């Protein structure tokens, strides 16, 4: 693994909007609609802070954001959290960043007494590496909603109990 000085940042800046757009677009995984949703979550946080329900963790190398996670408590639950988004810029994938962002996010959730972390993903074959990534780090499938996103595109829910 190459040497990289990692820094993590939780404060959200307006400049993160454009970088998140670049990161999410670079993965080639998300539709323009999904890209807009990723930005809307940043905007929610910029307007309302943590009260928005969306917290962020940015991983940086030499002041460049290489990946990020967006997570938050699930309203109406005692201690369950959603990991809404995790993405690493295509240029930085398979270098250990995703693993570290996930671990740091889990630590933040644990510090807030979160007990269960849920992640929604798609059943499409394109997402098999993503599903493997979750399984590799202790998440198990707990629900399957057939044809949820579209015919042949089901929703798979993973959970990790802390
Ligand atoms: C999923 C994602 C966040 C992983 O980030 P990453 O920085 O590439 O992951 P890491 O380098 O930390 O990989 C850790 C381990 O996860 C697994 N893994 C990650 N990407 C993988 C891939 N494409 N194929 C197979 N295994 C993979 C491997 O076990 C890997 O360890 P290894 O490199 O020693 O084999 C990143 O690939 C990504 O942004 N994907 C597109 C967006 C996405 O699917 N987001 C989740 C839905 S919101």
Largest sheet entry: 7 strands, mixed
Count of runs of 4 or more consecutive helical residues: 4
Strand share of the residues?
A: 25-35%
- CATH T-level fold name of the largest domain: Aminopeptidase
Distance between the termini: 28 Å
Give me the Rg, rounded. 15 Å
- Name the CATH architecture of the largest domain: 3-Layer(aba) Sandwich
For the record, the count of structural domains works out to: 2
Bound molecules: coenzyme A
Helix content: 25-40%
Write structural notes for this entry.
The protein is of the alpha+beta class and 162 residues long. The chain has 4 helices and 7 strands. It has helices at 16-27, 32-48, 97-111, 128-136; strands at 7-9, 55-61, 64-73, 80-88, 116-122, 140-150, 153-161. It has a 7-stranded mixed β-sheet, with helices on both faces. The structure holds coenzyme A. Coenzyme A binds at residues 27, 29, 85-88, 93-99, 121, 129-130, 132-133, 136.
What would the keywords be for this entry?
162 residues; binds coenzyme A; alpha+beta; seven-stranded mixed sheet; Aminopeptidase; 35% strand; 4 helices; 2 domains
Short description:
This protein is an alpha+beta fold and 162 residues long.
Task: Write the topology of this structure.
Layout: E1 7-9, H1 16-27, H2 32-48, E2 55-61, E3 64-73, E4 80-88, H3 97-111, E5 116-122, H4 128-136, E6 140-150, E7 153-161
Parallel strand pairs: 4-5
Antiparallel strand pairs: 1-2, 2-3, 3-4, 5-7, 6-7
Bound molecules: coenzyme A.
The site of coenzyme A has 19 residues, from β4, α3 and α4.
């Amino acid at each position: 693994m190459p040497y990289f000085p990692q820094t993590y940042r939780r404060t959200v800046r307006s400049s993160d909007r454009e970088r998140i757009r670049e990161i999410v677009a670079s993965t080639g995984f998300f539709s323009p609609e999904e890209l807009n949703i990723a930005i809307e979550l940043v905007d929610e946080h910029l307007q309302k802070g943590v009260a928005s329900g969306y917290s962020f963790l940015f991983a940086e190398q030499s002041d460049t954001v290489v990946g990020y996670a967006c997570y938050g408590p699930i309203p109406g639950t005692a201690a369950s959290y959603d990991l809404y988004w995790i993405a690493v810029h295509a240029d930085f994938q398979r270098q250990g960043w995703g693993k570290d962002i996930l671990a740091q996010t889990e630590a933040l959730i644990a510090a807030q007494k979160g007990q269960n972390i849920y992640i929604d993903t798609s059943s499409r074959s394109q997402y098999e590496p993503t599903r493997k990534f979750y399984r590799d780090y202790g998440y198990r499938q707990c629900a399957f909603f057939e044809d949820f996103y579209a015919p042949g595109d089901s929703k798979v829910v993973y959970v990790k109990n802390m």
